[in-house]
Inverse folding.
């Protein structure tokens, strides 16, 4: 259903220059994000989730991060071709991001109130000071910050990590973006606050039709909040499907492994959770063939000699495995 996609990422390849040479952190990643829906990106640490989102925002660390190829289409225009000034306008206005590291994204020298207020002003320049103040307090209240009238006067260093993350969420939501990229937005928070934040994002999505890219390494959270899922492994897409299809009929051995690592209520008590043995290959020395081969139960000769294609196996279901039919 590419026609109602609000954002399309096509063939994204992102690399970094390092002392040891060039590494490709993201290789040929494509997906569509639909209006009012949530796309989840899931995968182990280092698989390229944050680099994908920083590429969309054009916020890769300079000068070492570089988009080698691909397109990022918003409103029929390729964001990668926009002049920096236009891209600046898109960030925080059309697309906003909740960063994994809240301290790097908050300005340490400005009070919390000023930083949220700026976000409101960007989107609604005709709001007066009193209205901005009230809306900012309301936003802090919504993300679960106690005594918002007091907190709004404080500086980022006066808040705990979890509070800062909630401020970040408030700032990202204040400008009412069309697309919100949430990079592990709740990992630093305790579970009750996590649930509140997820609820808040869902309810704002209902009223505003905002699309969300939700990044996490937790498939349990994906099941709760997402419509579609991209499973990444070592910089590539391993599997892409609707949440329903992914959970009902996972076809990539890695997805299967991730799913069996989720605790279930009907598991016998004290049973050990399955984990995926082995570790992700080093991006500097990737194997020939499939990137998952060293951990794969189904590995055979061709998996070592040829990389599998990302094959379409159903309407919206894609899998990057030679042996998907047998899995
Ligand atoms: N600034 C950088 N310089 C060099 N390499 C980088 C840089 N940032 C990321 N990388 C490389 O890109 C790969 C993907 O990183 P990324 O931050 O996207 O992982 P992630 O999936 O977000 O992991 P996590 O779950 O830990 O946040 C890393 O393995 C690393 O090798
Ligand atoms: Mg990350």
């Amino acid at each position: 259903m590419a026609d109602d996609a609000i954002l399309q990422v096509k063939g994204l390849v992102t690399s970094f220059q390092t002392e040891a040479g060039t590494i490709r952190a993201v290789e040929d990643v494509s997906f569509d994000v639909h209006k009012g829906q949530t796309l989840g990106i899931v995968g182990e640490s280092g698989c390229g989730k944050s680099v994908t989102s920083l590429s969309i925002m054009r916020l890769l660390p300079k000068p070492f991060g570089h988009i080698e190829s691909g397109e990022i289409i918003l409103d029929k225009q390729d964001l990668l071709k926009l002049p920096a000034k236009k891209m600046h306008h898109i960030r925080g206005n059309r697309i906003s991001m909740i960063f994994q590291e809240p301290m790097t994204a908050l300005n340490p020298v400005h009070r919390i109130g000023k930083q949220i207020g700026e976000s409101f002003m960007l989107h609604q320049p005709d709001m007066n000071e009193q209205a901005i103040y009230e809306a900012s307090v309301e936003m802090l209240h919504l993300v679960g910050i106690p005594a918002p009238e007091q907190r709004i006067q404080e500086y980022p260093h006066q808040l705990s990590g979890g509070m800062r993350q909630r401020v970040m969420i408030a700032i990202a939501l204040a400008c009412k973006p069309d697309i919100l990229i949430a990079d592990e937005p709740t990992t630093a928070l305790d579970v009750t606050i996590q649930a509140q934040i997820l609820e808040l994002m869902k309810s704002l999505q209902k009223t505003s039709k905002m699309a969300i890219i939700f990044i996490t390494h937790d498939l349990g959270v994906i099941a709760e909040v997402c419509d579609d899922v991209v499973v990444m492994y070592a910089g590539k897409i391993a599997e892409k499907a609707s949440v329903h299809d992914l959970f009902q009929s996972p076809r990539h051995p890695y997805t299967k492994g991730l799913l069996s690592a989720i605790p279930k209520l009907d598991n016998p008590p004290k049973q050990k959770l399955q984990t995926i043995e082995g570790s992700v290959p080093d991006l500097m020395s990737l194997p020939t063939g499939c990137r998952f081969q060293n951990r794969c139960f189904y590995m055979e000769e061709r998996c070592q000699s040829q990389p599998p294609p990302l094959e379409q196996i159903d309407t919206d279901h894609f899998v990057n495995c030679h042996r998907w039919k047998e899995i």
Notes: The pocket of adenosine-5'-triphosphate (ligand 1) is lined by residues 16, 18, 23, 25, 43, 45-51, 61, 64-65, 100, 217, 283 (CB under 6 Å). The chain has a mean pLDDT of 90.
